[in-house]
Amino acid sequence: MTETYVCSHCEATVTRPFEIRSLIRTCDECDENGRFLHESLVESLHSLPDEELPDDWETLPLDERFELALRQGLIQLTRK
Ligand SMILES: [Zn+2]
């Protein structure tokens, strides 16, 4: 089993043999140290209704979009 994680800053991806919500690592592509979100979370961020989102949404790193969407109740975390 491999799971895909997406860089919050440049959307480069890495795979890991386990599933968690996010990884903290330094990106090979953009050299930012930050969060890589599991691809399922990134997909849910892409399916949010535009009218609920702030104007600068597209400029935010993915991890900030994720935190914001959680605070606004736009996404739910499913527990396994
Ligand atoms: Zn990156």
Provide a descriptive summary of the structure in words.
By secondary structure, the protein is an alpha+beta fold. The protein has one domain (3-71). Helices cover 22% and strands 25% of the residues. It contains 2 helices and 4 strands, in the order ββββαα. The protein has a 4-stranded antiparallel β-sheet. Strand 3 and strand 4 (33-38) form a beta hairpin. It binds zinc ion (ZN). Residues 7, 9-10, 12, 27, 29-30, 32 line the site of zinc ion (ZN).
Give the helix/strand layout.
Elements: E1 3-7, E2 13-16, E3 22-26, E4 33-38, H1 39-46, H2 62-71
Antiparallel strand pairs: 1-2, 1-4, 3-4
The structure holds zinc ion (ZN).
Residues 7, 9-10, 12, 27, 29-30, 32 line the site of zinc ion.
Task: Summarize it.
It is built from two helices and four strands, in the order ββββαα. It is of the alpha+beta class.
Cα-atom Rg, whole angstroms? 13 Å
How many strand elements? 4
Count of individual helical segments: 2
Strand content: 25-35%
Based on the structure, what is the oligomeric state of the protein chains?
single chain
Could you say which overall geometry the principal axes of the C-alpha atoms support? globular
Kindly report the average pLDDT value: 94
- The ordered H/E elements are EEEEHH
User: Helix content range of the residues, please?
Assistant: 10-25%
Numbering strands along the chain, what is their spatial order in the largest sheet? 2-1-4-3
Bound molecules: zinc ion
State the secondary-structure class. Answer: alpha+beta
Number of domains: 1
The low-confidence parts are none
How would you sum up the major sheet?
A: 4 strands, antiparallel
Gap from first CA to last CA: 16 Å
